[in-house]
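mind reviewing both lines:
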Amino acid sequence: MASAPAEKITESVTAEDQREQTDGFNLIIDALKLNGVKTIYGVPGIPITDFGRMAQAEGIRVIAFRHEQHAGNAAAIAGYLTKNPGICLTVSAPGFLNGLTALANATTNCFPMILISGSSEREIVDLQQGDYEEMDQLAIAKPLCKAAFRILHAEDIGIGVARAIRAAVSGRPGGVYLDLPAKLFGQVMDAAEGKDSLVKVIDPAPAQQPAPEAVERALKLLQSAERPLIILGKGAAYSQADDAIRTLIEKTGIPFLPMSMAKGILPDTHAQCAGAARSLVLKESDVVMLIGARLNWLLSQGKGKPWGGKKQFIQIDIEPREMDSNVEIAAPVVGDIGSCVSALLEGIDADSHSPSKDWVDAVKAKKDANVAKMAPRLANDNFPMDFHGALGALRTVIKERPDAILVNEGANTLDLARGIIDMYHPRKRLDVGTWGVMGIGMGFAVAAAIETGKPVLAIEGDSAFGFSGMEIETICRYELPVCIVVFNNGGIYRGTDVNERNSDPAWTTFVAESRYDKMMEAFGGVGVHATTPEELKQAVDSAMDSGKPTLVNAAINPAAGSESGRIGNLNPQSKLQKK
């Protein structure tokens, strides 16, 4: 009689052992796959190395970088290009901190991104007992991103991933931090229960319709304008409401000014584009409609000398707190850009909402004069090259290849390229954005090539390239169709500064006549040294045709360049400089 219960217990344990199980590693991968994640950008290490291997085995593309900041930048711009949160995976503490710069930048620029980092165990961190790379990462991340979550239990992985995705893309998009303590990865649970715990996010970024009275107010103000102006920001490009925006602009005939990452929603060569008459339209306009653009430092906060006095503003933005951030907004229209522009179109009357002929003629005359004035500078073949001659050559490259992605950063290299290189399609120009932070170049280039499948031309100042230059090994390793042009004038702003105090070089100069092209050759890519605009164009055309990883060292006159580019006013000068 006593042996029967023992046999039943043995049978029960055996059946339990045979039930299929899963763990944190697999649940995280399954949760990401369920929500359409196809690519992860990151750097391997403890405690996430096995996670990356397993993700690859499950069909997710895992792109390994040399530094977490650049992996984070790649994830951020992937989010911008796709409207789905880009995923960056890092190790704990130092790796997390490296990724945090990209996360903060993504939040500032409104790019949807999720930074996932392994972390130390809570019981050790909270008692400060000295764990491996111990750090309270959640507390550090919270002030620098849109939302931050920590998952402690395997059964909460589905909800945690879902919350991160929804937070990243809903409303005004931004960066989200997801903290995964090392112990979570190894937690085991029943596979069927684990599958049931996963969440597929439904409609994570629902349309937000504007209030009818807000639309009516905006239309009435626009109708009163004689010299209206529309400013397109990168939010307009992110919205992918290209057709509606194009219809609004062309139906009204209002001149438009694209901010740098909004270039191409309508071609820069469009008759209504006022990019070449920027100073005039900012100063002389009377009613300004902002579509996905913020009145921050890039627009002089909407006041002061560039604006020539008080304006009346219409602002379209999904974030109501953006209104009145610097100046009074007479007609705020709160909602997603696609819905807002469509609502405006329903009430637009081309006759009553069009600008005066005098205004259109004045803008055209100023634009034509500035274009004619710039033309000979862009066509020069000076030796050594200056910025204008080199950018003139690359301007032609993009004109001939309008579907290519342009990545751009630097000081003079960025400021001048913004105005010189015309864009023809939306979301083809990627640059430093709101913060003006250097080092985005190679991360953006990698993600642009992977997410779009298009050839990428990265135009880099030599200083900016130094922040992420090692990632050319990543570009070569994955054999990406990226051509990098380094504008090499031997220093920050220029390469001619001198330290008159001692034998140390001036702190704004680099090694003279450096050969960045040799770096690319070291990793198996193509390196080219170009000294004239013609050589530069030939090298870039060859690279774009071949699709091979290429770096062109564009030798620029060391004396070319100006202090802080076009924002020298932000660089205070000492009144006590010693002679």
Remarks:
- Residues 1-14 have pLDDT under 50 and may be disordered.
- Residues 6 and 12 are 10 Å apart (CA to CA).
